[in-house]
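User: Please run a holo structure prediction.
Assistant: Happy to. Please share the sequence and the ligand.
User: Here you go; the ligand is 2-acetamido-2-deoxy-beta-D-glucopyranose.
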Amino acid sequence: MAPSTSSTAWRSLPSSLVSIATLSSLFLSLTGPAAAFDCKDIQAQGQHFNLGTLGGPHKLHWVDEHLEVERRYNYTFDIDICQKLAWHKGGTKETECRHGTRICAYQEETNLLTDNTTLQPIEIAGTYTTGAHRLIDARFELFRKTGSHADADREGFRAELHGGRFPFDDSRKGLDQQAIIEFVCDAERTGLEGNEKDDGEKQDGDDEKDDDEKKDKDKDSSASLGRRESKCEDSDASLRFCGYDTEDAAEGKDKKVRTLRLEWRTKYACENAPDDTPRSHWGFFTWFIIILFLATAAYLIFGSWLNYNRYGARGWDLLPHGDAIRDIPYVLKDCARKVKDSVQGPGSRGGYSAV
Ligand SMILES: *[C@@H]1O[C@H](CO)[C@@H](O)[C@H](O)[C@H]1NC(C)=O
Ligand SMILES: *[C@@H]1O[C@H](CO)[C@@H](O)[C@H](O)[C@H]1NC(C)=O
């Protein structure tokens, strides 16, 4: 970076900045949530929902005993609808779901005869772009638009998340996994009542007063529905486990998919829900400007430092392309004149002047 005399250096400055910015934005879009879905702006058939407050890992448990084969399966489900799960401290590839997972099942299998226990992570939903290319392919539908009788008296929406398989690496024999979460509108719940945090502690519900009333109402509605939603665990937590069974896949009778069914009661699933989480308005353009600014600053600082050290430059000469920068006002003036000329050009020739 010699003190600017060469015009090629001057010309390469903007193009190198542009390529830095392009690279950075490419990087942002690759690592960002673009490949998945934005929990703060879920679009279900024209309705927008903001589930930002339900983010973060949530835990559920389920014990499934198969006495006929002397096995007990103790499942722990980790769920983060907003971003991929982080590994537990000391976790390894053998004990954790692979990166990109949003819903992971930890299956603890106990042989009741020998008391031998093995732990197996099962990817249920997530976005995987290395190796097997499997996407979360999130689909949302409003209850009121399903046309199903069972959904008619509920407000909210159903989310279907894909991407998982077990065993994940076995594309022939691996069993596809998916999660179906029913977000049910309940104006009195945030959705975090009874939430088990990652350290295994229970969070108190905010509002315990009409629990019994609520339970009765639940029972009534599930009796009349007579659907698998009624199989949800008997718990007053907002997030409830409703099943983890192998079902026929939607796309073909002979295809099976193991489906984790959850129900999440929350006011954020109500249409016209209060939007009290501040939304980030930092779009692509803001990032672009920031990166451009930082790159320019870094370039000027580094260039000045170089000129100072190498050539003992002082004052204007410190800046890389100092004379070019000094010329900027004149270049701009020149540009403005050219633009003005070309705008006024046809008019002065009497071509297409406005009447
Ligand atoms: C299942 O696992 C959880 C967490 O590891 C544990 O707290 C619970 O006692 C286990 N239940 C059974 C029946 O083994
Ligand atoms: C427990 O089971 C694993 C895998 O099934 C097996 O490799 C191991 O030898 C068993 N351990 C005991 C103590 O039976």
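The longest helix spans residues 284-311.
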